Automatic annotation (TrEMBL), chains A, B:
Protein family: Belongs to the NAPRTase family.
Top-level taxonomy: Bacteria, Thermotogati, Deinococcota, Deinococci, Deinococcales
Keywords of this entry: Glycosyltransferase, Ligase, Phosphoprotein, Pyridine nucleotide biosynthesis, Transferase
First-level EC class: ligase
Keyword flag Phosphoprotein: yes
UniProt GO molecular function: nicotinamide phosphoribosyltransferase activity; nicotinate phosphoribosyltransferase activity
GO biological process: NAD+ biosynthetic process via the salvage pathway
Cited PANTHER family: NICOTINATE PHOSPHORIBOSYLTRANSFERASE
Protein name per Swiss-Prot or TrEMBL: Nicotinate phosphoribosyltransferase
Nicotinate phosphoribosyltransferase C-terminal domain boundaries: 374-477
């Protein structure tokens, strides 16, 4: 066993994996490309996903900052090479070549926080084949995960904000996240997706995400009585106390004790900040607690609710008149569990080699890739709302009246409308292996917020959303059909 | 933003989070305990879960090695303290106390790889209240995640092994795992749960897990023809080549080309190792491919299958006569997606303070904790099979004929059988903050294997399993009922 070097990036202040974080086959293929003298061929790989997470109408693209930092820094250390030598799969001459390996390619991508859709190239790597091949695993890992969580966050935040009284979201999933770094990545992505704060102190330190928290049941149980415990916490943080009401009984014990403390704080010139509900019927309890707080003259005490929340539970609490101000969301936000299955199925496919189109057919036609160098165009109507995305060949632009087709079914065609303006939303984030793009996390968060507002009506609906149209330009669809025929014709032959 | 120190543990060779990886409220509560002079009180917290993951009959306990290393090393660096000062929540005197903070408590736990069940204390921390409080977040994070994945792995491996022809599992979920470290933790836990190998090179380097892999579609597309691509790979690894058959068409193109290469290798004194199916009807394709390989004289060429597999898909492939030798399992293994929801809901509850029992009631009686210092006993029948687990007060042992009760429902009682031998399966893994336990990962893997074999019939069934009995000893159940009454009686009072 070796000790691969770890990198703590001073920019994103995140632990990044070494180049050795890859699938074995990337290295055996690199070896093969190198041995055959094919490794310097110019390849383009597209990264995309086929279905929106959570059966929703969109994705929120996240993780790009981390991905670029990984690409900038990926190297093989002497310890890494010694480990690879020990596997018996890699001869010395190839390992010597790996010692000098670095990523020198170009990367074009949607900027972080952009709202994105299935079957469009979210990120494209263009450069030497063996470079583009190695980084597949890490790119997919970082971008799949953070995009999944940012999307979940946008859904949860949207549900919370749909209350007539407003509502915000606190991410506190660290204890259920997939490992310590999974918790950090989730906190980062959830912030991009719109959450207001996190309970994760390390995420606050690394990313500057606002921290929030209350106290636990153990605090209450550590004092002779619940009231003693509440008083002790309020004495410590007289202007920043949120009391957890359900250690013994929310309405019979927690709330009366909290009201006592609220009055005591008021008498001393302070104010109880909030109360937290963590079990029971949150709609009923929040209505009741709100009414009693208001009657007692505490309309500004906020109600925090938690307990296995997700966007659907939040919607149901609001539908039943619940009066929650802040939703603490843990497990399902930090892991993307539930409908999302805990993973986004992003893929990374070779689409061009030495200027020639490449594609993969497989048994499932819907999984066939879209070959070639491409551009993505995002259309905006006169009202400022998005009208759809069109993917064209590299040097083409969408034309009003053009018949464009669905990437998964060429029979589904639409005609591009008059009066839309088309813009390429992607940016060159790396060139020659150097970073060409950098922005604070807040900029990604703001992009997500404004992009979501610009989507067509129904796109952000949680269930059965409007399906945003991503289409292939006419020439690209024709080229793809032609290549598909050629591949089928020569199938099996040499 | 600060730069919290990161620790690369030379023993487990894993990146560990700093002490700052905790929820904000742990620190505000620590501050409160410290301010009130309560921080040195001796507390016991129990870590347990309430439902087996994946609606199954057991859990495979994993992550303990990482958790102990975290506890040994958790410290607050000057940069951490500077960040905490910046939050405005922590005065200098408390931060000065934190500078000297370290974990000095005792930890009793099931050894890693043990098969475990709901509502039994898997790990108990006994020591100063503020120490036990801080580490809740990291302990739950590490142990919830790795136990989830080890359990999933055991299910998947069990399904693969149920074929009359045998079958093993390769973990290759890195590209869909929750962050780079999530992929490493998943590879580690999956190995404990019984997988044979991983594609994750970094996991191989860090944990010594055997590496395996094939090649990707991009390899095939990078050559003039599929046969050229197969020949090039076989030239590179003449005794370690597994060819991916479905880039164009599995039966019409991939298989005939693989047979050509198999014959060419044979003529040169080598042997094709395997072929891989990655799309289509795996039961039909694997039967057909097996028959054609056998007819052609290649009975030793292994069939690897992949494509969104989990334990249920594997069972169905086997049920339909599929002839897969190695299942490559990615997303659902590395994230515990599907029925598991991507998370195990382990909790960490205060059960004793200064020798006195503590418990939490809440609105949901099934969520009430089991108070007090306890021991876990695992019963073994004369046939060597487990008969059930019993939790007793600290100084008690189970007695034949004792009426023991279900932790979630005191009305469900059973009588302990004659002739069972009872053993405490937990070990003291830390004492005085020092590690008292260490073992190679292979030992945990072997423990999981043998423990699973000893479970009662039906416990490892994937759906509607036999429910292994975990019971409270008579005295513990009585003490709990009495404390519950006392708490209810004084509810709302001071």
């Amino acid at each position: 066993m070796t000790d691969p070097a770890l990198t703590l990036d001073p920019r994103s202040a995140r632990v990044l994996p070494p180049a050795l974080f890859t699938d074995l086959y990337q290295l055996t293929m690199m070896h093969g490309y190198w041995r055959a003298g094919l490794h310097e061929q110019t390849a383009t790989f597209d990264l995309y996903y086929r279905r929106n997470p959570f059966r929703g109408g969109y994705g929120v693209w996240a993780g790009l900052g981390d991905a670029v930092t990984f690409l900038e820094r990926a190297r093989f250390t002497p310890a890494d090479l010694a480990f690879l030598a020990d596997t018996g799969l890699f001869p010395d001459d190839f390992l010597a070549a790996l010692a000098d390996w670095r990523f020198t390619a170009r990367v074009d991508a949607f900027p972080e926080g952009a709202v994105v859709f299935p079957n469009e190239p979210l990120l494209s790597v263009t450069g030497p084949l063996w470079e583009a091949q190695l980084v597949e695993t890490a790119l997919l890992n970082i971008l799949n995960f953070q995009t999944l969580i940012a999307t979940k966050a946008a859904r949860v935040v949207g549900a919370a904000a749909s209350s007539p009284h407003g509502g915000t979201v606190l991410e506190f999933g660290a204890r259920r996240a997939q490992g310590p770094d999974g918790a950090l990545g989730a906190a980062r992505a959830a912030f991009v997706g719109g959450v207001t704060s996190t309970s994760n102190v390390l995420a606050g330190a690394r990313y500057g995400i606002p921290l929030a928290g209350t106290h636990a049941h153990a605090w209450v149980e550590s004092f002779p009585s619940e009231l003693d415990a509440f008083r002790a916490y309020a004495a410590l943080y007289p202007d920043a106390t949120t009391l957890l009401l359900d250690t013994y009984d929310t309405l019979a014990s927690g709330l009366p004790n909290a009201l006592t403390v609220a009055r005591e704080l008021q008498a001393r010139g302070h104010a109880l900040r909030g109360v937290r509900l963590d079990s029971g019927d949150l709609a009923y309890l929040s209505r009741t607690v709100r009414a009693r707080l208001d009657e007692a003259g505490f309309p500004d005490v906020r109600i925090v609710a938690s307990n296995d929340l997700d966007e659907f539970v939040i919607e149901s609490v609001i539908r039943e008149g619940g009066r929650v101000d802040i939703y603490g969301v843990g497990t399902r936000l930090a892991t993307g569990g539930g409908e999302g299955g805990g993973a986004l199925g992003g893929v990374y496919k070779l689409v061009a080699l030495n200027g020639e189109d490449r594609m993969k057919l497989t048994g499932d036609p819907a999984k066939a890739s879209v070959p070639g160098l491409k551009r993505v165009w995002r259309g905006e109507g006169a009202d400022g709302r998005l009208v759809g995305d069109v993917i064209t060949r590299d040097r083409q632009t969408p034309r009003a009246g053009e018949a464009v087709s669905d990437p998964t079914n060429p029979l589904r065609r639409i005609t591009l409308p008059e009066g839309a303006s088309w813009r390429d939303p992607r940016v060159t984030v790396m060139d020659g292996g150097e970073r060409r793009w950098s922005e604070p996390l807040e900029a990604a968060r703001e992009r997500a917020r404004t992009d979501l507002q610009r989507t067509p009506e129904g796109t952000t609906r949680l269930l059965n959303p409007h399906l945003y149209r991503v289409s292939l330009g006419a020439a690209l669809a024709e080229d793809r059909a032609r290549l598909m025929e050629q591949l089928r014709a020569r199938m099996g032959g040499t």
